[in-house]
C-alpha cells in the first residue's frame, strides 16, 4: 500500500513541469567568469596593496572554488525547489534531508550531496529538477514509513 | 576563566565595530542623516524638523520612522555634535552589548560555557551583525532590545523585576524599527506558547508585564495610519499571487546563496563577495539544526521557532532576500553554529578524522575572517561609495563655503535627498527651519530641483547639477573614488 501511494506521489511530482532555475551557472560559465572577476578584484585592491596580499586573497584557486561553491548553492536554492515541486514536494524534500541525518543512509547521503556537484558539469541545469523530484519521493517514502 | 574570555570577545566586538567607523561605511546615507538632524532638532527645541513636539513617530521623508533611534541619538549628538561618529555611536554600542547577551542566553539554555562563548564570538565577528552595527541602522537597536528582553525573560523565574524589565525591553524593541511591529508580537506568541505552563501559573505577574508592554504600543496605536505608510510602500499585499510570492520570499531567506555566498543585493546591507554568514559555518549550521531538532527541551524548540518565524517580516515586503528586515535571526545563526560546533567536538567519530576536520575548518575560519576584513575595509568603501551617498558631504561643505548670502542656490535631487544633508552638515538652526518649513524643496536660499538644470534665474545664483547638466561657469566637480562624477557646481 505504501509503495503504491509513494508511486502515485512520485508520478504526481514527475508530471509537474520543472521550472527554469534562477541561475543557470555551469562549469563553462564558471571558467568564463574567472578572468573578469580576478581582474575586478585586483583592480579594486589597487596598486598600493602588497601583491602577496592580493594574490593570497584573489588567486585563481580561491575564485574558482568560490564560483563552484556558489553554483553548488544555487542548485539547492529553496525557491527553485519550491517552483519545481510545490509546497508539498518541498516539505518532503526537506523531510528527506532530515531523514538522511537520522538514518545515515550513506549511499543516499552521497547521492544527495553529489548530485548538485555533478550537475554543474551538465550544460542544462534543469536536470537538477529531476533530482528534487526523486529525493522528495524518497522523502515521502520515509515519511510514510513512520506510520505502521 | 570564561568571564575573562567573554570580556576579551566583547573587546574584540567593540574593536571591529568602532574601527574607522566615521569613514567606513564611506558616507552617511539619507536615513542616518535624517535621524541625526531630527535628534539635533529634538535636542535644541524638543521638536522634530516639522515642529512636532516630542514626536511618537519621526515623519522624516514621509515614511514616519520609529522614534527610538532619534531619541537615543540625543546624548551622542550632545557630545559629538552633528558628525558621523555621533550618528553611528548608539548602533555600535548596542551592537557590541548584544555579544555578552548571547553568552547569557546560550548559558541559560544549554548550560555549556563552550557553546555560550563560541556563540558570543560568532556574533562578535558576524559579517551580518557588523554590517548593521557599524552604521546608524535603527534595526540593530531592535535586535539588542529583543535579545535583552529575551535574556531577562529567561532569567526571570522568581524575579519579578527581571520580568518587568523584559517587558520594557520588548516595548522599546517594538518602537525601534518598522519590522518590529510584526516581529515582536510574533516572538511574544512563540514565548507564550512554549512557556504557557509558567504563564498560567503566574497570571498576575504576566498581566502586569503585558500592561507595561501595552504602554509601549500606545504611540503606534495613536499613529496607526502613519505607522502603516512605510509598510504599504514595500508590501506585497494587493499584488497578484501574493500568497505564492510570500512563500517564495520566505524561502529566499534560507537560500544558501544568500546566507553563505552572495548576501543581500542592496549595497548598504552586505559586502560584495560575502554571504551574510561565513562559509565555515555551513557544516555547523546543519549539525546545529539537527541537534536542536533532536531535543525535546522547550527552549530548543523556541530557538527553532525563532528561526522559522524570523523571515516573516521580510517576506511580506520586497525586495528579498532582505538582510535588514530579517535581522532578528542574526543572534540565532550564531547560537546554532555554536551548538553545531560543540556537538561536532563531542561526537563519537574517529579522533584522527576529528582533528583533521578541526584543522581544516580552523584554516577556513581564519581565511574567511581575514578575507571578510579585507573586503570590508579595502573593497567596500570603494565599491559601495555611491550607496552611502559619499561625495554629498563634500558638495555641501563646498557650497556652504563659497555661497554668498544674497544668491540663490539650486541643488539637484537626482542623487538623493539633499535638503537633509544641507541641514545636517551646515548645522542649520532647527528653530529657524521649523518656522520657515514648507516642503523639502526649499529652505533659506536653497531650492532643490529634479531633472536636468534648464531654467534661468535673473539674479546671481549657484547651481549644483547632475553630471549630465551644464551649470553655467563651472567651478568644481565632485567625484567619488576619484573618477565617478557625482556633481557639477557652477555659478552665474
Q: How does this structure look, described?
A:
The complex is a heterodimer of chains A (148) and B (492). With 148 residues, chain A is an all-alpha fold. Chain A has helices at 2-15, 27-45, 51-57, 60-75, 78-103, 106-119, 127-145. In chain A, helix 1 runs antiparallel to helix 7, helix 2 packs across helix 4 and helix 5 packs across helix 7 (127-145). Chain A starts with a helix and ends with a helix. The mean pLDDT of chain A is 91. Chain B has 22 helices and six strands. The termini of chain B are far apart. Chain B has helices at 2-18, 30-45, 68-80, 84-110, 113-125, 127-133, 138-154, 160-174, 180-194, 196-201, 203-222, 224-234, 242-252, 256-262, 281-294, 298-309, 312-315, 330-345, 351-383, 392-402, 418-425, 430-436; strands spanning 408-412, 442-443, 446-449, 461-465, 473-480, 484-491. With 492 residues, chain B is an alpha/beta fold. A six-stranded mixed β-sheet of chain B has the order 2-3-1-4-6-5, with helices on one face. In chain B, a hairpin with a 2-residue loop joins strand 2 (442-443) and strand 3. Helix content of chain B is 61%, strand content 7%. In chain B, helix 2 (30-45) crosses helix 3 (68-80) and helix 7 packs antiparallel against helix 8 (160-174). Chains A and B meet through helix 2, helix 4 and helix 5 of A and helix 13, helix 14, helix 15 and helix 19 of B.
Amount of helix of chain B: 55-70%
Quaternary organisation of the protein chains = heterodimer
Low-confidence stretches of chain A: none
Q: Characterize the main sheet of chain B.
A: 6 strands, mixed
Can you give the mean pLDDT of chain A?
91
Uncertain residue ranges of chain B = none
Q: What is the rounded distance between the termini of chain B?
A: 69 Å
Quick one: overall form of chain B? globular
Beta content of chain A = under 5%
Number of helices of chain A: 7
Q: Greatest interface and its residue counts?
A: A-B, 23 and 23 residues
Instruction: Tell me how many strands of chain B there are.
Output: 6
Tell me the structural class of chain B. alpha/beta
**Structural class of the helices, strands and pairings of chain A?**
mainly alpha
Amino acid at each position: 500500500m505504501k509503495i503504491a501511494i509513494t508511486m502515485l506521489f512520485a508520478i504526481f511530482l514527475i508530471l509537474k513541469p520543472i521550472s527554469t532555475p534562477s541561475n543557470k551557472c555551469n562549469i563553462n560559465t564558471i571558467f568564463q567568469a574567472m578572468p573578469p572577476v580576478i581582474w575586478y578584484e585586483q583592480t579594486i585592491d589597487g596598486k598600493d596593496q602588497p601583491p602577496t596580499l592580493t594574490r593570497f586573497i584573489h588567486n585563481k584557486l580561491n575564485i574558482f572554488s568560490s564560483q563552484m561553491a556558489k553554483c553548488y548553492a544555487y542548485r539547492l536554492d529553496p525557491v527553485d525547489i519550491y517552483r519545481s515541486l510545490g509546497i508539498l514536494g518541498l516539505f518532503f524534500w526537506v523531510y528527506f534531508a532530515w531523514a538522511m541525518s537520522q538514518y545515515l543512509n550513506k549511499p543516499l547521503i552521497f547521492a544527495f550531496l553529489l548530485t548538485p556537484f555533478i550537475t554543474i558539469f551538465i550544460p542544462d541545469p534543469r536536470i537538477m529538477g529531476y533530482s528534487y523530484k526523486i529525493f522528495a519521493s524518497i522523502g515521502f517514502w520515509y515519511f510514510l514509513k513512520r506510520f505502521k | 576563566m570564561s568571564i575573562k574570555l567573554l570580556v576579551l570577545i566583547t573587546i574584540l566586538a567593540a574593536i571591529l565595530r568602532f574601527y574607522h567607523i566615521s569613514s567606513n561605511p564611506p558616507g552617511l546615507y539619507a536615513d542616518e542623516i535624517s535621524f541625526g538632524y531630527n535628534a539635533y532638532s529634538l535636542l535644541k527645541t524638543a521638536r522634530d524638523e516639522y515642529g512636532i513636539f516630542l514626536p511618537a513617530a519621526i515623519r522624516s521623508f514621509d515614511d514616519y520612522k520609529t522614534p527610538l533611534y532619534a531619541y537615543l541619538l540625543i546624548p551622542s549628538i550632545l557630545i559629538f555634535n552633528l558628525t558621523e561618529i555621533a550618528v553611528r555611536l548608539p548602533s555600535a554600542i548596542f551592537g557590541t552589548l548584544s555579544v555578552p547577551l548571547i553568552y547569557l542566553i546560550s548559558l541559560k539554555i544549554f548550560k555549556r560555557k563552550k557553546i555560550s562563548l563560541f556563540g558570543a564570538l560568532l556574533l562578535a565577528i558576524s559579517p551580518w551583525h557588523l554590517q548593521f552595527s557599524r552604521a546608524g541602522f535603527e534595526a540593530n537597536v531592535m535586535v539588542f532590545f529583543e535579545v535583552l528582553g529575551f535574556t531577562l525573560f529567561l532569567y526571570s523565574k522568581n524575579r519579578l523585576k527581571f520580568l518587568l524589565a523584559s517587558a520594557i525591553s520588548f516595548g522599546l524593541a517594538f518602537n525601534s524599527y518598522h519590522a518590529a511591529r510584526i516581529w515582536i508580537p510574533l516572538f511574544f506568541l512563540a514565548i507564550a506558547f512554549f512557556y504557557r505552563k509558567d504563564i498560567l501559573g503566574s497570571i498576575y505577574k504576566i498581566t502586569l508585564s503585558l500592561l507595561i508592554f501595552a504602554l509601549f504600543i500606545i504611540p503606534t496605536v495613536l499613529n496607526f495610519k502613519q505607522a502603516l505608510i512605510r509598510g504599504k510602500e514595500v508590501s506585497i499585499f494587493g499584488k497578484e499571487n501574493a500568497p505564492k510570492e510570500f512563500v517564495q520570499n520566505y524561502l529566499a531567506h534560507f537560500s544558501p546563496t544568500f546566507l553563505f555566498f552572495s548576501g543581500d543585493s542592496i549595497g548598504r546591507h552586505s559586502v560584495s563577495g560575502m554571504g551574510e554568514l561565513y562559509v565555515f559555518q555551513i557544516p555547523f549550521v546543519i549539525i546545529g539544526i539537527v541537534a536542536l531538532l533532536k531535543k525535546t527541551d522547550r527552549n530548543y524548540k523556541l530557538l527553532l521557532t525563532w528561526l522559522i518565524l524570523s523571515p516573516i517580516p521580510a517576506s511580506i515586503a520586497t525586495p528579498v532576500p532582505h538582510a535588514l528586515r530579517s535581522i532578528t535571526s542574526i543572534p540565532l545563526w550564531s547560537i546554532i553554529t555554536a551548538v553545531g560546533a560543540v556537538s561536532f567536538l563531542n561526537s563519537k567519530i574517529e579522533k584522527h578524522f576529528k582533528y583533521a576536520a578541526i584543522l581544516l575548518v580552523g584554516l577556513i575560519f581564519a581565511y574567511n575572517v581575514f578575507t571578510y576584513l579585507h573586503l570590508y575595509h579595502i573593497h567596500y568603501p570603494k565599491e559601495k561609495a555611491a550607496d552611502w551617498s559619499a561625495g554629498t558631504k563634500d558638495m555641501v561643505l563646498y557650497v556652504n563655503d563659497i555661497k554668498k548670502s544674497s544668491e540663490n542656490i539650486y541643488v539637484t535631487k537626482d542623487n538623493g535627498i539633499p535638503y537633509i544633508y544641507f541641514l545636517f552638515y551646515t548645522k542649520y538652526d532647527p528653530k529657524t527651519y521649523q518656522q520657515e518649513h514648507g516642503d523639502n524643496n526649499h529652505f533659506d536660499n536653497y531650492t532643490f530641483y529634479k531633472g536636468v538644470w534648464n531654467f534661468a534665474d535673473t539674479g546671481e545664483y549657484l547651481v549644483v547639477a547632475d553630471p549630465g547638466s551644464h551649470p553655467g561657469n563651472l567651478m568644481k566637480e565632485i567625484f567619488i573614488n576619484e573618477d565617478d562624477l557625482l556633481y557639477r557646481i557652477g555659478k552665474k
